[in-house]
């Protein structure tokens, strides 16, 4: 028998001890960063929770039994190894928040049933392997925040960009054939989600990337002239005389 990666076994008792009460009084089952490789069946007995956090594990699949969490409003599956989502996810009619970023999802394995989540307000599909976005996502009229960053997208459907309540859209770092398309689509305020982790939790490549970015930032800070030596540009025209017609662009 080939040796597979063994994950931590979650017991019902351990799951019950992982229930937290949020600031607004909701019950959250927090099983994040537990080394879980298989969806723990025992948590189906706790299907009356309002929020479920299975992020930062090693899950490859979410079973159809997820539909038993009928009260679920908040589902966080980011930073796993998911290659697909179950069709049954469309049965979570009360879901307002869904985060499946940093997985291995492809367009082919995005279920059409996602368009049944009529109450969804936040959808994060960033850091996956999507090369196309289904136009059916335009049926989610309550969406306010959509993240599609770091995928393989070459276009964003109009049905998504024209969502009536959309306020934040992040399409950064996608291979758009026309670079101006990202700027045009991203004229809607981007959603910026920040996950704080310790250096020891980062892989070598991610740690190096963060350190490189920090070094760049420090170099930029060192290049900024001190206030005691303000540069003098007597030949510059006043901002009002040169930027009046382009003020929207500068904003």
UniProtKB/TrEMBL annotation:
Residues 224-244 have a biased composition (Polar residues). Signal peptide: none annotated. SUPFAM superfamilies: L domain-like. It comes from the Eukaryota. GO terms for cellular component: cytoplasm. PROSITE patterns: LRR (PS51450). It is found in: Cytoplasm. Keywords: Cytoplasm, Leucine-rich repeat, Repeat. Coiled coil: none annotated. Residues 66-236 form the Disease resistance R13L4/SHOC-2-like LRR domain. Residues 222-251 are annotated as: Disordered. May be involved in the regulation of spermatogenesis and sperm maturation. PANTHER family: LEUCINE-RICH REPEAT-CONTAINING PROTEIN 18-LIKE (PTHR48051:SF42), PTHR48051. This is Leucine-rich repeat-containing protein 18. It comes from Struthio camelus australis.
